[in-house]
Amino acid sequence: MAELLGLDSSTQSLSAIVIDTDTGEILLDETVHYGDDLPQYNSPNGFLENPDPLVKHSDPMMWLEALEMLLARGRDKGFDWSQIKGISGSGQQHGSVYLNDKFFQALNYDSSKSLAEQLKPCLSRASAVIWMDSSTSAECAEIARAAGGVAEVVRLSGSRPIERFTGPQIRKFYKEDPAAYEKTARIHLVSSFMASILAGADAAIDLGDGAGMNLLELAAADWNDKLLEATAPNLREKLAGPVPGSTQVGEIAPYFVEKYGFSPGTAVLAWSGDNPCSLVGMGAIEPGTAIISLGTSDTFFAAMRRPVTDPKGYGHVFGNPAGGFMSLIAVKNGSLAREAVLNRFGLDWDAFAKAVLEETPAGNNGNLMLPYYEAEITPLVLEPGPKLFGGDAFVNWQDGPAAVKAIVEAQAVNLKIHSSWIGEEPSIIRVTGGASKNPGILQVLADVFGATLQRLNVSNSAGLGAALRAANAVTGIPWDNLSDVFSAVEPATSVKPIPANAAVYAELEHTFAAKLNETYGI
Ligand code: ADP
Ligand code: XUL
Questions:
Q1: Fewer Cβ close by (within 10 Å): the C or N end of the chain?
Q2: Could you give the CA distance from residue 465 to residue 478 in angstroms, rounded to a whole number?
Q3: Contact, 439 vs 298, CB < 8 A?
Q4: What's CA 245's distance to the chain center, in Å?
């Protein structure tokens, strides 16, 4: 039997999926929610409150406590961790953990103490900055200047300097606290940090997630000296890797053998970013299948034939875990913005779907929202707060169904216009993430993209992708065979576009783009 574990360390939760490559079964699918399960971290949505709306940090000790809670839950439910042959994982992208030189020694854990207890003294920065942070515009400009201009950064790294990317975030830390930067011996991504914890060894960053740092030269598959120097001094020595995603970074640490019953020698593979892992989990490693993921962030991505960059600068090129590259756009105002509308009108998700499907027409009688509750990354809007245009009841937040329809239409159109540079006009799009369960959201996406949407049997495609990456590396089973079995489509949930709505949404694309321009000058 080959049982493989995929972990997904995402913005709001940590989850585990165990697959069995002999039977094609999912043996375990378990989640710890930071807000509900670890309320002592004061992070109801996975991040800490901050008076500056552009700053978003998390406590990495919360991730470690979640890991122990998840493994203990599996063990207490009678799941036998000793059967696992290999582990890989998926991390929310771009986030970074800053560690002093005690880190390397601390990885030889003492089994009588918790991971959090042992790792806390190793932090050279108290919290980890995450992908939702938009506070580095000054550093982005400085990096562009020092590296020879925005176009040069795009040419080398696949993205312009981006506020949430790790390089600009490292630069900000270096500027704000040079002494703490100096004491930082290792900077990990969420993915490589969690891999290090499992292996009890300093694990390298993989090429898929490493591409989200503005430090990696895509063509060379290595850190680029010009980008490193433009970011902060002595940075190369503080980074581990980059390595291909199939690299084994170690064997499970004795701590997990003693405490949770893993077998000594269990392989730990490099972790990757959630979007690269999702590409694998969705069975989309070959060009031609586009994915929309509706999680905390909404993303649109696809495998690429060759790296193409976004002339507007919002899109990115990341490493495809199966080799080559993938395109991606990420929208920060995804699920949490939908929840803000849901909660404002006291709705549940069924009522939310009904408002979209039954209570409002396509085009929403001309009511339109610019849906940026938080500072947005695609497009770049640094002024938080939604803006409403249309009828009196709507603009005064007195029309619940219209508000629901407005956010769903706005998010769909926003994704469509900002993903057009990818040059895919897919007739089928696969969807994943928490909100992909919502038929109202799916219908509007189908109509706006003029594509049939398909959902997979497994909802956590990032965790599944991590397990498949472990399976491919450990057992050598080819990607195609793995995705035929595990990334099968649920035919009952395929949603087709309604032809009569096509013209309405073609028009809305123009109106929405014009409103963006009028309101934010973009
Ligand atoms: P992440 O992996 O980024 O933490 P998930 O993919 O787990 O996020 O998605 C979590 C989100 O899914 C929640 O914030 C919630 O708003 C959303 N969600 C859950 N169920 C539904 C539903 N039926 N309709 C719309 N959104 C939903
Ligand atoms: C991608 C991005 C988000 C995070 C969190 O660039 O910022 O999708 O990976 O999911």
A1: N
A2: 14
A3: no
A4: 16
Q: What is the pLDDT of residue 266?
A: 98
Residue 445: exposed, middle, or buried by beta-carbon count in 10 A (0-12, 13-18, 19+)?
A: buried
pLDDT of residue 504: 98
Mutational test site, ligand 1, from 296, 333, 407, 493, max ligand atoms within 8 Å of CB: 296
- What whole-number distance in Å separates Cα of residue 6 and Cα of residue 493? 25
Query: How do residues 9-37 score in pLDDT, each as one tens digit?
Result: 999 999 999 999 999 999 999 999 999 99
Q: What is the pLDDT of residue 1?
A: 59
Burial class (CB in 10 A: 0-12, 13-18, 19+), 312: middle
Give the confidence band of 457 by pLDDT, cuts at 50, 70, 90. confident
Ligand nearest to the CA of 91: 2
Ligand 1 proximity of 296 Cβ (cutoff 6 Å): yes
Enter the DSSP assignment of 24: T
Mean pLDDT value across the chain = 96
Structure tokens at 396: 């005064």
* pLDDT tens readout for residues 99-119: 999 999 999 999 999 999 999
Q: How many CB atoms are closer than 10 A to CB 125?
A: 21
Residues in CB range of 174: below 8 A, 6 or more apart: 181, 231, 232, 233
pTM of this prediction?
A: 0.95
Give the model confidence (pLDDT) of 362-418 as tens digits: 999 999 999 999 999 999 999 999 999 999 999 999 999 999 999 999 999 999 999
Render 489-510 in DSSP notation, one character per residue: B-GGG-B---GGGHHHHHHHHH
Residue 491 has pLDDT above 80, yes or no: no
**Ligand 2 centroid – CA 308 distance (Å):** 19
Q: Pick the residue with more confidence: 488 or 249?
A: 249
Compute the C-alpha angle 156/54/98, nearest 5°.
60
Angle at which helices 400-419 and 439-449 cross, to 10°: 40
- Which residue has a Cα nearest atom 6 of ligand 2? 330
Using a 6 Å cutoff on CB, does residue 273 contact ligand 1? no
Q: Is the CB of 335 under 6 A from ligand 1?
A: yes
Alpha carbons 457 and 233: distance in angstroms, whole number: 47
Confirm or reject: Cβ of 9 under 6 Å from ligand 1. Answer: no
Ligand nearest to the CA of 47: 1
Going by alpha carbons, the residue nearest to atom 5 of ligand 2 is 92
User: How remote is the CA of residue 329 from the centroid of ligand 2, in Å?
Assistant: 9
What pLDDT does residue 98 have?
A: 98
Ligand 1: which atom is nearest the Cα of residue 8? 2
Evaluate the CA torsion angle 62, 63, 68, 73 in order and state its sign. Answer: positive
- Dihedral sign (CA 370, 374, 377, 381): positive
Q: How far is the CA of 392 from the centre of ligand 1 (A)?
A: 31
State how beta strands 325-331 and 316-319 pair.
Answer: antiparallel
Using DSSP, state whether 361 is helix, strand or coil: coil
